[in-house]
Amino acid sequence: MIELIKAASPLVAAIISGACLLLVSRHKRMQEKLLLAYQDIQFLQEVEKVHVEMTIGRGECDNQRRVRAIVRKEMLIDSSGITPSQVRRNINKYNKRFSIL
């Protein structure tokens, strides 16, 4: 019985090590996808900001709140309320993590 345990221990260690590496790589991929999502949010916030500035520049009122209300009502999509500063902070946080890895 002891011989069987001695023979199987390197195999068990290899399996556990492989599983840990798999989990770490999956976690890193998820963090990379999250970083891309934050960058997309940042891009869309900037597009909205420029659009509002252009609309105001033409002498019109910026219908930002009205457009958001229409999207909420007609498409049943609501904003999480994440602010541009929160997006920048999260992007910086994940960029730092990836520079360490």
What does this structure look like?
With 101 residues, the protein is an all-alpha fold. It has one domain (2-100). Helices cover 84% and strands 0% of the residues. The protein has 3 helices and no strands. The chain has helices spanning 2-57, 64-75, 84-100. It is elongated, with a radius of gyration of 24 Å. The model has no long low-confidence stretch (mean pLDDT 87).
Tags for this entry?
101 residues, single chain, mainly alpha, 3 helices, elongated
* Main sheet: strands, sense, barrel: none
Helix content: over 70%
Number of strands: 0
Order of helices and strands: HHH
SS field, number of helical segments: 3
Q: What amount of the residues lies in strands?
A: under 5%
Low-confidence stretches: none
The assigned structural class equals mainly alpha
User: For the CA atoms, what is the radius of gyration?
Assistant: 24 Å
Average pLDDT over all residues: 87
Number of domains: 1
Topology, pairings included?
Layout: H1 2-57, H2 64-75, H3 84-100
Helix pairs in contact: 1-3
Summary?
By secondary structure, this protein is mainly alpha-helical. It has helices at 2-57, 64-75, 84-100.
